[in-house]
Amino acid sequence: MNRHVTSLPIPNHLKTKLVKNGIESVTELKNLRPTDLIKDFGFTRTEVSELYETLDMYKSIKSMSVFELLQQKTDKSNFIKTLTPGLDKILGGGLPLGKISELCGAAGVGKTQVCMQLCVNVQIPEVFGGLGAKAIYIDTEGSFMSNRVVEIFNATGNLLKQNFNLNNRNELIKHNFTIDKILSNIFYYRCVDHVQLLACFNNIKILMEKHPQIKLVVIDSLAYPFRFVDFKDSNSMTMKTNILNNIMSISYELINKYNIAILVTNQMTTRITRDVMSNLSSSNLVPALGETWAHSANLRILLSWKNSKRQASVCKSSYLPDTSIFYKITERGFEDEFLENDSNDTIKNNTNAFLNDSDFTNAQIKRKKFDD
Amino acid sequence: MSPIPLSNLSLPKVLLEKLHQNSIFQVEDLISKAPMELVKLLNSPLSQIEYLYKICFQNLPVEPINIFDLIQKQNEIQSNSNLDIFDKLIFENEILKKGFLSEICGPPGVGKTQFLFQLCSSNFLNKPDSSIIYIDTENNFNPERLVQIAKEKFLYRDKTEDDLTNMTKNIFVYQKFNFSEFDELMKFIEFEIIVKKTSLLIIDSLASIVRREFSGSDPSVLYERSLFLSKISSRLKAIAEFLDVAVIVINQIITISNKPLNNPEFTLKAVETENSTVIPALGNSWTHYVNIRLVLQYVDDERRELLLVKSPVSPFRRYIYTINSEDGFLIEDFEQSSESINPNDLKIRSKPYSK
């Protein structure tokens, strides 16, 4: 239906201005930009805003004031608590909702353990400071162990009992924190290649409509389906970038709609560079998936080995300082490790340790190979 | 995943022709294009592209799995009261778990092959109806030794000679010493596994094949090597998962030096001094690809140890063992320590040769 501008509930002098300039229908009006109205028709800013208010335009565009954002931030339920004080502290409260977080680290450092732990943590009932939500687990490596989830659940239950001074588990059961519930609230996907991974993301869109309580999507690992991409073949490189981008756009869509946390694990790979002058090659350990991907994650956590201790560091974030803590992997998953010499302050600032987050200087191994 | 041709999807004829003109024949080709790229290529509105995507994904069956079923599947290993220490090690740490790709690495002579022979007997005792495929690339396979080790184990479990014969009939050995032969075998391995009802696939060793074929430190060779490794790992994992077998791969060790690169005094002698380290071969990325990593190494002349350094199931564990001329692999001591170890930065101890 094409409405005539004269029928709009706006002051008469505005109507005349419009008709004078040949604007007769509302559709025509809607095609004009505010700058056109001001520049060509001599509208003032107040008049334009009046006009748009009556036209009910641009209502769908949502923005948030910093004030609102700050209020949301202080709202503790905007994080998935890990129940590990040190990790919660360096992450500013836990794994953030509405963000894509990346967990990268060498093999066997505990990435999968953290993922499984978070699937349990996201389900902690609200009375115990959790979210009481559900989780999706996308497994590309085949390392998911449901028996470990049971173990993590038991250990988490014990911790909650201790933290809230509960005498027995009845209190937990009352709030639906039981093993049956925990297991049925993790949706598990097994993907073997990149095509399935993308298909899986499309399936998640439908699943999320049915279960809006889902607050965590874990992909363990995002790197593995792309490791066999031949980097010398430009076609398959484009394919990799496109599929990653498609996955990212679905991720952002889900984040916008449901305010979920997305946790992605990434592998480490050895990058070999050869010095032409001396003909010696050196290698550094860098996260896989390349530089383009490195921009996509909002938060990057690096798990690494320091001698025989494990260390977790925040190394890309717009709101957190670069800090690191020591940790150990226990029955419950990720737990703080307190070193004897500085038990009071395990959190150390190492702002200078990472000059460039994609080039971990302290993870660099330079070596010459003899027989390989 | 097998490619799905777009012609199977009952798309409108006009659209299908357009797609074919742009050499998009399979679902994979289509979904690996960005939506806007397709709009331009096909000259169709975005809504039509979205419809196209929708049809595609309807034909890619991906559904979440119920974890209860998964637990049932993972807990199928029966609890047998008659387990010896070795079998306990295997089952507690789920080394013979279907769907897992496990790796064993260690210096020469530490007992990797002995461990495998023991593993073969364990596997047979628990799944007597299934067979084992053993790919030997180092010409190490010794049937007499296998029978000797199995005999001791079978005595312990009250098994007869017939069982032993039965076992030997169900272990199939493929000796492939060069890369092309190995590659050829890998093409047919899936059929072999199905026909022979295999429950355990052993590659002894992957490293020797890979290192012989991709030798040298030229970046392009290293690149080819890493590509091959990622492909074969994904292949083996798919085999493990969908054909219900456990896959065990043997890895070798290499020596690297800790000396700075641009040191002119740096000579081969450094290998023998403390400036060098022995680590598992095949590189860092490979460590990601395996589900379980076991390390065998020397403690002193007699005793050796087995370390469980990467596993999604168990914490770091240490087993002390000796190699016995009759029983083979004999576990003497077990220790579960709270310490942990970096699976990439192992300093593997070789045999302490006395001067």
From TrEMBL, chain A:
Pfam families: Rad51 (PF08423). One of its GO terms (biological process) is reciprocal meiotic recombination. Its main location: nucleus. Residues 76-268 form the RecA family profile domain. GO terms for cellular component: Rad51B-Rad51C-Rad51D-XRCC2 complex; Rad51C-XRCC3 complex; replication fork. One of its GO terms (molecular function) is crossover junction DNA endonuclease activity. Keywords: ATP-binding, DNA damage, DNA repair, Nucleotide-binding, Nucleus. It is found in: Nucleus. InterPro entries: DNA_recomb/repair_RecA-like (IPR016467), HR_Repair_Mediator (IPR052093), P-loop_NTPase (IPR027417), Rad51_C (IPR013632), RecA_ATP-bd (IPR020588). PANTHER family: DNA REPAIR PROTEIN RAD51 HOMOLOG 3, DNA REPAIR PROTEIN RAD51 HOMOLOG 3 RAD51C. This is DNA repair protein RAD51 homolog 3.
TrEMBL record, chain B:
GO terms for molecular function: ATP binding; ATP-dependent DNA damage sensor activity; double-stranded DNA binding; four-way junction DNA binding; single-stranded DNA binding. GO terms for cellular component: Rad51B-Rad51C-Rad51D-XRCC2 complex; replication fork. Keywords: ATP-binding, Nucleotide-binding. PROSITE patterns: RECA_2 (PS50162). GO terms for biological process: double-strand break repair via homologous recombination. InterPro entries: DNA_recomb/repair_RecA-like, P-loop_NTPase, Rad51_C, RAD51B, RecA_ATP-bd. It comes from the Eukaryota. The keyword Transmembrane helix does not apply. It holds the Pfam family Rad51. Residues 75-253 form the RecA family profile domain. This is RecA family profile 1 domain-containing protein. It comes from Brachionus calyciflorus.
